[in-house]
Design brief:
- The complex is a heterotrimer of chains A (106), B (421) and C (398).
- By secondary structure, chain A is mainly α.
- Classes of the chains: A mainly alpha (106), B alpha/beta (421), C alpha/beta (398).
- Bound molecules: flavin-adenine dinucleotide and FE2/S2 (inorganic) cluster.
Chain lengths: 106, 421, 398
């Protein structure tokens, strides 16, 4: 019954897959994300994180007041490299504190 | 709407659309529910949330892969292509994967041995991955991207009812306030009757809160007209009024095309002056779900009573207590989850509210800062701004307008205290 | 529920033969290899968070033989050889894809390095070949060949997906009897007899005859408890991944002159980083993992110039990870100065993931049977005191 009930549609993560991760001892959102791939697709966890949190609480695997979603990282919206590239020159070139190269990297 | 109808092209075929339609609206009206396939089981997929949150409506639009059809407004001649499908729609041979792995597919342990089979499996898997193909090169003569910088006293993210109420009160008091919203003007005005902020950037999604660099970055895509724009904002106060979204209800076959978010669809119908014609049921608990079912004129069931959703390429019915109820569209109305990712980036502390993660605030709407994460010597040093939250992002059961006004009052008091005139 | 991948509740004995601190790829791979060689040893890995929380869960997954120093080339020939069969050994898909590394030279200095490398690689037995700009384009078709002088390509180089790599070592280590305790921090280390006493965040105290510090960027914290002064320090490295697209790029491409690198993962995302000097006044020894817009705009400008088709490519997620940088670019591995039973496996300077399969095996052999190796001599933590440290490697990217 759990093989086609989806928690994360972006990466096709079903309840069955969450069960497998839990069976291996992984019970935090960060761990389950990294074992199942949940939350790593186009929506970056917007649709599934709450549902996963709910599942962990309902099964007694996590305390509601101790739960946190995985680290919020930019971009919250997909953004093109072309647009980002355009910001490079005016935004950063004039900054005086830019260091040429303190490290010996190429 | 009485404006002239338009024509867009979907997989090469002309498709009628109305001005103001989103691409998803035009596709749904024409009965195109499935527009892509899922990455692993190759299941047919289409839009769900209809408000830009879930990502499964993504299509190739005007030569660019993975654009959200539910946020893209139609233009005459717009070229839209389905993605991640092989061969003619409906005949994709990779659909077999779904049937071969009825009991699930453990990608960690599938065909690890023998080595040669493993190598072959990985090579085949690689050809099936990815959504869409490379974008087209920027057209010669396309307007170049623009950079805009803003230094308002207050930045408001989200121009829904809470954001509008708050911004209106600040504007009335003469505060320098800038509001951003990812939706377009039509979507915003049809969403809610309150007047829009004076300084409002529409079609503009904030994508990053970079505290060490003391700025918030937002982007307006080129399809909204003119140049793509990057906005860098350095406010003294940020107010998160980002609202809430509908997450998923984990039911069997909850991913079938035709499973749509109830609120998203209700707003889309309002936006486009359209009506629901397909046989439809709504799944959800509580007063809000009841009200939505009444507004849309559809029958409601409690999700806990639903055994499964039926269908192959799209929704065909549900099974409730052993009884099959045929329908073409299933509207989900789960308890809404706060849209708090940007607030979390800004360093706000979150709290699980049973459906999602709400921004934790004091009663006035001042966000509490997250403690240093236990697993990293991370550095949410003193943020360069004061963070606030109002409306559903801090509590999905408040009245957003009243909450926006309440937080505006607190913010005004703080501004008055910090800058006595 | 099994503890196949670690548990916060797992009971630890009061006495261990070896306590490995840090559940990254180094700690887990060493524990696994040692358990194979010396099954009677009582070994525990203690990780303060979840297993892939450090650099091992945040890296680009690139593996290459194309180094500038003989020892590193030989080490990576061995490591890549191990990786070819590692999925079968660990019983998990690693998505190891040998699409090669394509190094690009756009300056005379970079060109000279590629010539020198090609010669060296031929001597050591790595199948690297030099390519004209036109030939480079046949391997990475969307590149802009302007200013490109020379390229080098090694088809044996490739990429893996880091997460299962770590899960695989963890599960096999546990299968071999290694105790895997997660969500538990080592908060204090003090000498106790010939060994050490560890104070855990759970309140427990355990004794270990030997300790292996496998905490990478955090290793200095632990060393300080014992007054061990080593010169590796943490560095924040940023990276991003794009929307997943159908395969369009086989090799991992490195532009030597800008420090830009990018590859397309098995899932289709472009995974991309760049050498980004920290701003003046920013560099300190605290550990930071925040993301910056400066990174994103710098890399966007560099990447879209080198591969113009990426202008329309969308960034899906950016993140940062910490690794420890060693002043001479060589790892810091072996008994610590003044503490013969407190071992280090640190200092891999941004390339520990690819070296882990071979390095962990060397260390396990040393711990189990006292077996030496030229790289172990070179990695000796005491070299900074004795003045034997020397920079040999100039192909450090990141
Ligand atoms: C963005 C990025 C890209 C990279 N790209 C590549 C690449 O392409 N190829 C490559 O080979 N390498 C790459 N690297 C480097 C590589 O990831 C590291 O060298 C390698 O993962 C180091 O492994 P580790 O096990 O030593 O450290 P880590 O994985 O950092 O593990 C250390 C662990 O110790 C734990 N810990 C710390 N303190 C304590 C304590 N007191 N008690 C208990 N546990 C503790 C931490 O939580 C952590 O899990 C990259 C690194 C980064 C950040
Ligand atoms: S993002 Fe468009 S339907 Fe969800």
């Amino acid at each position: 019954m759990t093989a086609r009930a989806f928690l994360c549609r972006c990466e096709d993560v079903t309840l069955g897959e969450i069960d497998r991760a839990i069976d291996r001892g992984l019970t935090t959102i960060e761990e389950i994300k990294r074992y199942t791939g949940l939350g790593t697709g186009p929506c970056q966890g917007k649709e599934c994180t709450g549902a996963l949190a709910r599942l962990l609480v309902d099964r007694g695997l996590a305390r509601a007041d101790a739960l946190q979603p995985f680290t919020a990282r930019p971009p919250a919206e997909p953004i093109t490299l072309g647009l980002l590239a355009a910001a490079r020159a005016p935004f950063f070139a004039a900054r005086p504190e830019e260091d040429p190269d303190p490290k010996d990297t190429p | 709407m009485d404006a002239e109808p338009l024509t867009i092209y979907f997989d090469g075929d002309p498709l009628p659309a109305r001005p103001g339609d989103t691409v998803s609206a035009a596709l749904l009206r024409a009965g195109h529910l499935a527009t892509t396939r899922s990455p692993k089981y190759r299941r047919p997929r289409g839009p769900y949330c209809l408000i830009g949150e879930c990502g499964t409506c993504q299509l190739r639009i005007a030569g660019q892969p993975n654009l959200r059809a539910c946020l893209t407004v139609v233009q005459e001649g717009l070229v839209v292509e389905s993605q991640n499908a092989w061969g003619p729609a409906g005949l994709d041979p990779t659909r077999l994967v779904d049937h071969l792995f009825r009991r699930g597919f453990d990608h960690h342990h599938f065909l690890v041995r023998p080595r040669l089979a493993n190598v072959a499996m990985q090579a085949i898997a690689r050809t099936m991955t990815g959504f869409g193909v490379l974008p087209e090169l920027p057209r010669p003569g396309a307007p170049p991207p623009e950079l805009h910088e803003h230094v308002p006293t207050v930045l408001v993210l989200g121009a829904g009812p809470a954001g509008r109420a708050l911004t209106g009160a600040l504007e009335a008091a003469g505060v320098d306030v800038l509001a951003l919203d990812r939706r377009d003007r039509l979507g915003l005005s049809r969403w809610h009757p309150a007047p829009l902020p004076q300084r409002l950037l529409v079609d503009t999604g904030a994508f990053g809160v970079y505290a060490p660099e003391r700025l918030i970055a937002a982007a307006s895509p080129p399809l909204a007209g003119g140049s793509p724009r990057l906005h860098l904002v350095r406010p003294k106060h940020i107010v998160f009024a980002t609202g809430a979204r509908e997450g998923m209800i984990p039911l069997l076959n909850n991913d079938l095309p035709g499973v749509l978010a109830a609120r998203g669809l209700a707003h889309l119908l309002e936006r486009t002056d359209s009506q629901l014609t397909a046989p439809c049921v709504l799944l959800g608990d509580g007063e809000e779900a009841e009200a939505l079912a009444a507004q849309l004129g559809v029958h409601r069931y409690a999700p806990a009573d639903v055994e499964r959703i039926l269908g192959r390429d799209h929704v065909e019915g549900i099974v409730v207590a052993g009884r099959t109820i045929p329908c073409g569209v299933i509207l989900l109305a789960p308890t809404r989850a706060p849209i708090s990712e940007l607030a979390a980036q800004a360093g706000a502390q979150l709290r699980f509210d049973g459906a999602g993660f709400a921004v934790l605030t004091d009663p006035d709407g001042r966000a509490l800062l997250a403690p240093r994460p236990p697993d990293a010597d991370d550095d949410p040093a003193e943020p360069p701004w004061q963070i606030w939250a109002c409306g559903h992002v801090r509590n999905t059961s408040v009245d957003p307008t009243a909450d926006g006004l309440a937080v505006a009052a607190a913010l005004l008091a703080e501004l008055a205290a910090s800058e006595p005139s | 529920m099994s503890a196949a991948l670690g548990s916060a509740a797992l009971a630890l004995p009061a006495e261990l033969d070896l306590a490995v601190i840090g559940g990254g790829v180094m700690g887990l791979a060493t524990a696994y290899n040692l358990a194979l060689l010396a099954p009677a040893l009582k070994i525990a890995v203690i990780e303060r968070s979840y297993l892939v929380s450090g650099a091992s869960g945040r890296n680009g997954g690139g593996l290459r033989m194309q180094w500038g120093d003989r020892g590193n080339v030989a080490l990576m020939i061995e490591s890549i050889g191990l990786c070819k069969r590692l999925a079968q050994e660990l019983g998990i898909n690693l998505w190891f894809r040998q699409g090669g590394y394509l190094f690009l030279a756009r300056s005379a200095a970079a060109e000279a390095r590629l010539h020198r490398n090609a010669e060296l690689h031929r001597e050591v037995g790595a199948p690297t070949r030099l390519l004209t700009p036109a030939d480079a384009l046949t391997i990475a078709p969307h590149l802009c060949a302007e200013h490109l002088r020379l390229a080098s390509f090694n088809p044996e180089d490739g990429v893996v997906f880091p997460w299962p790599f770590v899960w695989g070592y963890a599960a096999k280590a546990v299968e071999r009897g290694v105790l895997l305790r997660t969500h538990t921090e080592v908060q204090g280390v003090s000498p106790a007899g010939d060994g050490y006493r560890l104070d855990l965040s759970s309140g427990e105290q355990i004794r270990a005859a030997r300790v292996l510090n496998a905490t990478g960027a955090w290793s200095g914290h632990l060393n300080r408890h014992l007054g061990i002064d080593l010169p590796n320090h943490p560095h924040r490295h940023e990276i991003f991944s794009s929307e997943p697209l159908r395969p369009f790029l086989d090799p991992l491409v490195v532009d030597l002159d800008s420090g830009l690198y990018f590859s397309q993962s098995t899932r289709g995302e472009l995974v991309t980083g760049i050498s980004l000097p920290e701003l003046v006044g920013y560099r300190d020894d605290t550990l930071k993992q925040h993301s910056t817009l400066r990174f994103l705009t710098t890399i966007a400008a560099t990447l879209t110039a080198l591969m113009p088709i990426t202008a329309g490519l969308k960034v899906l997620r950016q993140w940062a990870g910490p690794y420890d940088v060693s002043p001479d670019g060589d790892a810091i591995v072996g008994p610590s100065p003044g503490h013969p039973n407190f071992w280090q496996i640190c200092g891999f300077t941004g390339h520990g993931f690819m070296m882990a399969p071979a390095a962990a095996r060397l260390v396990a052999r040393w711990l189990a049977r006292g077996e030496g190796h030229p790289m172990l001599t070179r990695w000796d933590p005491s070299r900074f005191l004795s003045g034997a440290a020397a920079r040999r490697e100039d192909m450090i990217i990141g």
